[in-house]
Amino acid sequence: MANPIYSALPTTIFTVMSGLAAEHGAINLGQGFPDAPGPRRILDAAAHALTEKSNQYPPMPGLLELRAAVARHYATTQSLELDPTREITVTSGATEALACAFLSLIAPGDEVVLFQPLYDAYLPMVRRAGGVPRLARLEPPNWRWDRAMLETLFTPRTRMVVVNTPLNPTASLFDAADLALLAEFCVRHAAVAVCDEVWEQVVFDGRAHRTLIGVPGMRERTVKIGSAGKMFGLTGWKVGWLVAAPELTRVLSKAHQFLTFTTPPNLQWAVAEGLEDPGDWFEVMPRDLQASRDRLSAALRAEGFSVLPGSGTYFLNVDLAASGVHEGDAAFALRAVKEAGVAGIPVSAFYESDPVAHVLRLCFAKADATLDEGARRLARARDLSRAAVR
Ligand code: PMP
Ligand code: GLN
Fold first, then answer.
1. 4-31+281-389 — its CATH code?
2. 198: Cβ below 6 Å to ligand 1?
3. What integer pLDDT is reported at residue 389 of this predicted model?
4. What pLDDT, in 10s, does the model give residues 304-359?
5. What residues are in contact with ligand 2 under a 6 Å CB criterion?
6. Ligand 1 center to residue 306 CA distance, Å?
């Protein structure tokens, strides 16, 4: 009656933890979304488009105005030269973009290299597309691959590699040397890279986001995925895009045309306006988030927690084992939300096998008072855990 890949799946950890947070009246530092309303100008643009512009089907690859705005944005920020008519497809969020890439580029039996910790949508979709996952394990504090690891992962059957940078949940970035090494293996094995770069604009400490599509040899074999939800702090909007050479875009669009065909036009107009004229948003947004990261980090350290380094995303990670917590991250996360009133995400949820199970991910895209109270509650959870587990 059901496809076994889906019938065996648990409910995603983000929904589980947000549900528990609501049930227990907890501060929700779990699922990643800002508590700020988002840029007013873009909200107004969406409202205006809803009443004043067409609400009928936009073109299947997306409004040309949005595709042109995406191309210009990447020309300015990442020095990419993109043809909006042949290399960009607007999707309903990065999630649909990922589905398009997996469904249209994987043939049954193809091996797909993925790195754990991984965003939980990847594996079921890769498997449903007939892909055979080859899973690697990245570890704190650096969360990087190396040549020996790649040698064991890539085989003659490798057709795809999936890369997420900045990486959710670790908040780490792959640098130019990491990407050059991976590109060498992609080229050698004629593999396509699917690059989930939804956090590309949420980068701190003067670090630069690097994109694999800009690495020599990768322009024709990379699918770059972006999300307006992350760029503008409007996570419910579900406006994303696929960027790829024309030959790849042609096949990606075959999947897109039968997944959603299109995405609400008012949101597309608003995102186009936001990208064309962002004002100082792309300076102010990361600067404010960096300050929030630093605030939560300082509050947690003051409570005696060991905080792992992170240079992007909405997330900061606590090393529970190094913070005097002697239970696994999943058990501790349940205790924290139920008994101490603060929700986080256990990083073990981002592994299918052999998890790193002593790290808790916290979302800092919140008001200062919420972060301060969250840190206090997490300290209370640690005390309760210590009393219960010796
Ligand atoms: N990939 C990663 C790594 C994410 O963190 C998220 C959402 N947080 C997505 C994909 C999904 O993005 P969207 O909401 O645009 O579908
Ligand atoms: N990407 C968000 C996070 O990592 C959650 C997305 C979702 O809820 N599906 O928290």
1. 3.90.1150.10
2. yes
3. 87
4. 999 999 999 999 999 999 999 999 999 999 999 999 999 999 999 999 999 999 99
5. 12, 14, 31-32, 168
6. 27
